[in-house]
Structure formats: structure tokens, C-alpha cells
Amino acid sequence: MSFTFTPTNASYKEVNEPCDFPGCVDGNRCGYCDDGEQTDRVCEAPTLNLANSNARGILMALGKEPVESGQWEVNELGDARQRVLLAKNKAAVRGCALRDASESGGPGTGQCKVIVGGYTDAQVFDRLCRLDDVLAWGQEHDSPVQWA
Ligand SMILES: [Zn+2]
């Protein structure tokens, strides 16, 4: 599961591209396409898609309740961008979003294998920069920014 941060007023367009599924050739199509072309729905605005746990960490770093869906109204975007700037400049603010990678269980342990991906400070910093691009687009286009 994931959250996508998206300006609500952004429009989408469909873009046709050659199918890039391995082994998809004339006479042996992949099953995802009929004719060697795939159609992607592309947002005109920047968006940011994060795994649920990563999105929750980012929201907490910004002082937001880490709920599964929400929205910054246009008049809240300036404050949200200030919080992003603060988080980008203070490692302690980003700290709540960090997570160590871990692995447990697996063959011979009697437990199923569980792998938890980490979330490093560099990754959190990068996602904050990309979220700021989404928020800036919302400000420039009078568009709320939602996550869901
Ligand atoms: Zn294909």
C-alpha cells in the first residue's frame, strides 16, 4: 500500500509508449498490452508516491497526524512548505521518519521471514525535496494538495 501526494487541480493526459515488458514482441504479446503499446496516465504536476510507513514518517516530520488521507488547503501550503524547509534543515526534525532496515525469521527459524526496508536520512531528505515540488506546484496553481 502507498500514499500519493497530488495537487487536486492537476490534469492528466494519456501517453502511449512502446510496451517495455520483457519478451513482448510481435506474435508473442505479454498479456498486458494487445499491440505492443501501453498507455500511461501521466499527471501534469509533480506527484510523490511513498510506501505507507514512509509517508507516515514524512507526515510526522511535518507535524501532521499520520492518517491515511488528508489535504493541505491552498491557504495551508505556505505553512506546509515552511515545515518542509525546517525538516530539511534540522536532522532532529527528520529523525521521527527514519527507520533501520531489519530482517528476521526465515528457513530453520520456525517463523516466516520478515524484511523491513530502512528509511535513511538521505532518503527522507530527498522525499522532502520532492514533496516541496508538489506543494510549490499547488501554490503556483491555487490547488490544494491531497494525500491518499
Ligand atoms: Zn506488451
Q: Rg from C-alpha positions? A: 19 Å
Count of domains: 1
Ligand inventory = zinc ion
Helicity level: 25-40%
| Count of separate DSSP helical elements | 4
State the end-to-end distance: 10 Å
Q: How does the overall form come out from the CA principal axes?
A: flat
The fraction of residues in strands falls at 25-35%
Write down the overall mean pLDDT: 95
Largest sheet: 4 strands, antiparallel
Number of strands: 8
Q: Order of strands across the widest beta sheet?
A: 4-1-8-5
Poorly predicted segments: none
Describe the structure.
With 148 residues, the chain is an alpha+beta fold. The chain has one domain (2-18, 39-140). It has helices spanning 52-61, 77-89, 91-94, 121-140; strands at residues 2-7, 12-18, 37-43, 48-51, 70-72, 102-106, 111-116, 145-147. It has a four-stranded antiparallel beta sheet. It has a two-stranded antiparallel ribbon with strand order 2-3. It has a two-stranded antiparallel sheet with strand order 6-7. Strand 6 and strand 7 (111-116) form a beta hairpin. Helix 2 (77-89) packs antiparallel against helix 4. It is flat, with a radius of gyration of 19 Å. The protein starts with a strand and ends with a strand. The model has no long low-confidence stretch (mean pLDDT 95).
